[in-house]
Amino acid sequence: MLLTPAPPQPTATSPVSNSELSLEARLAATDAAMTIRLEEAAVAHEVRTAHIPTEPLSLEDVVTLPLTPTLTPSLASYPTPVAALLQRAHHWLLTGGWCTGALVQEDGARCMLGAIRVEARSDHGLEAGAVAVLLDAIRREFGDVDSVPSFNDAHASGRIPLRMLDQAAGLADARGL
To answer: What is the predicted pLDDT for the residue at 20?
Structure first.
C-alpha cells in the first residue's frame, strides 16, 4: 500500500496578504493584538496578586523632600488657638527634630506630645485640647489607638506623626478650636 500525503486542510487566513496591507493597517493590526495581550496580562496579574493584602499609601508618606530655607513652610498661623498650637508643634518637629521614646532628647528633638507641651507654654487647657484633637485625628485614620505617645513611639520615622499633627491642625481649625 502506497501512502500519499493528505491534501492540505483549509486554514483561516486573511483574504489579503501582509504585503498588500498599508503601513497604517499593519500598525493598527499590531496595536489591536498588543492591546489584547496587555489586557490578558493585566487580568492575570490581578488574579495572581488578589490574595496580597494592601494598605493605601498617602502621597505625603512617599514623597519626601529635604527641608531647605526655600522649602520650609511659612508659619501663617491658624486663627483658632488649638489649631495654631498644633501647627506650631508641627513646625517645631519639622525644624527641631522628631524623636521616639522620650518627650525630649538631649539634642532637642521632641516627640509629638513634647512639641505640644513646649508650644502650649504651660497652658494645660490648651494642651489638653490639642492632644484630644490630635488623638481624634489619629483614630480617624488608624483606628483604635491608646494614646498620642504610644502612636508616636510606634513609628520609626517622623513622617507619619508630622503628617498627623498637620491634619489635626486642619481639623481643629474646621471645628473652630
So the answer is: 83
Contact 93, 110 (CB under 8 A): yes
Number of domains in the chain: 2
Q: 106-110, long-range: CB within 8 Å, 24+ apart, which pairs?
A: none
Residue with C-alpha cell 474646621? 174
> Are residues 168 and 98 both part of a single domain?
yes
The answer to whether position 57 is within a domain reads no
Instruction: Give tens-digit pLDDT for 150-160.
Output: 999 998 888 89
Predicted structure pTM score: 0.58
Q: Is residue 30 located within the same domain as residue 94? A: no
Write down how long the chain is.
177
CB 89 within 8 A of CB 75: no
Q: Give 3-state DSSP helix, strand, coil % of the chain, rounded to 5.
A: 55, 0, 40
DSSP 20: G
Asked if residue 69 belongs to a domain, the reply is no
Instruction: Note the pLDDT of residue 60.
Output: 66
Domain range for 44 is 19-49
Q: Which residue has the cell 491608646?
A: 146
